[in-house]
Amino acid sequence: QVQLVESGGGLVQAGDSLRLSCAASGRTFSSLIMGWFRQAPGKEREFVACISRSGGKTWYADSVKGRFTISRDNTKNTVYLQMNSLKPEDTAVYYCAADPDSSDSIYARRSAAYDYWGQGTQVTVSS
């Protein structure tokens, strides 16, 4: 069992930055592919970014590429999402997720790959 706790959300203005954190426990962190997803009101949950077990490979949704950066610190059991140049359309609840089984992070760009989810943190971007 893996427990995930997100933090760092909030209310910001367009163009601002935020950094989300997700602390994991319950399983060797370096054995987990980690991902971030988001869900806006009335919309389906969508992939944002994921990172391989070592941190050497990352994948991004086209909508955030060049603005968001996913990273991890395996010594701190934490994954991060640095969000720059935020836009009102980035407003959503952001979820951290852990995938213990995929053979490669390239397969972890869909929510079905993930077994464990955090409770979510709200990000609101005003125009």
Question: What is the strand and helix layout of this fold?
Answer:
Blueprint: E1 3-7, E2 10-13, E3 18-25, E4 33-39, E5 46-51, E6 58-60, E7 68-73, E8 78-83, E9 92-99, E10 116-117, E11 121-126
Parallel strand pairs: 2-11
Antiparallel strand pairs: 1-3, 3-8, 4-5, 4-9, 5-6, 7-8, 9-10, 9-11
Element-by-element helix/strand order: EEEEEEEEEEE
Helix content: under 10%
Give the rounded overall mean pLDDT.
96
User: Could you describe the largest sheet, including whether it forms a barrel?
Assistant: 7 strands, mixed
Could you name the ranges where pLDDT drops below 50 across 5 or more consecutive residues?
A: none
What's the total count of β strands? 11
Global geometry: globular
- The N- and C-terminal alpha carbons lie at a distance of 40 Å
Secondary structure class reads mainly beta
Cα-based radius of gyration, to the nearest Å: 13 Å
Tally of alpha and pi helices: 0
Strand content: over 45%
Keywords:
four-stranded antiparallel β-sheet, globular, mainly beta, seven-stranded mixed β-sheet, 127 residues
